[in-house]
Write a structure and sequence with these properties.
mainly alpha; 5 helices; about 100 residues; about 65% helix; flat
Length: about 100
């Protein structure tokens, strides 16, 4: 038991873990764009400046990296759509 009798919640990731994950996703975007989705995983780790072990700690499978890249792109698109909703007509979509 912990103080107050409640179980601890999930631990927050360390700053270096967050930074490394972001670096891996950015590297994956670039590598997949250049070499396709079958690009070697070690190319992603190398581009991010991290070890293969770091890559696999964050993403156990290629599909996990692909999903994270797609989600990052969707979040970016969502932000653009949110900003464009303040502009009249199609102006926000073409800027």
């Amino acid at each position: 038991m912990t103080l107050g009798g409640m179980a601890p919640g999930p631990a927050r990731p360390r700053k270096d873990q967050v930074r490394n994950r972001k670096a891996l996703v950015e590297a994956a975007k670039e590598v997949f764009a250049e070499r396709g989705v079958d690009a070697p995983m070690d190319a992603i780790a190398k581009r991010a400046g991290l070890s293969n072990a770091s890559l696999y700690r964050h993403f156990a499978r290629r599909e996990d990296v692909l999903v994270e890249v797609l989600l990052a792109n969707l979040r970016r698109a969502e932000a653009v759509l949110a900003q464009s909703s303040d502009r009249p007509g199609w102006v926000g979509f073409v800027l």
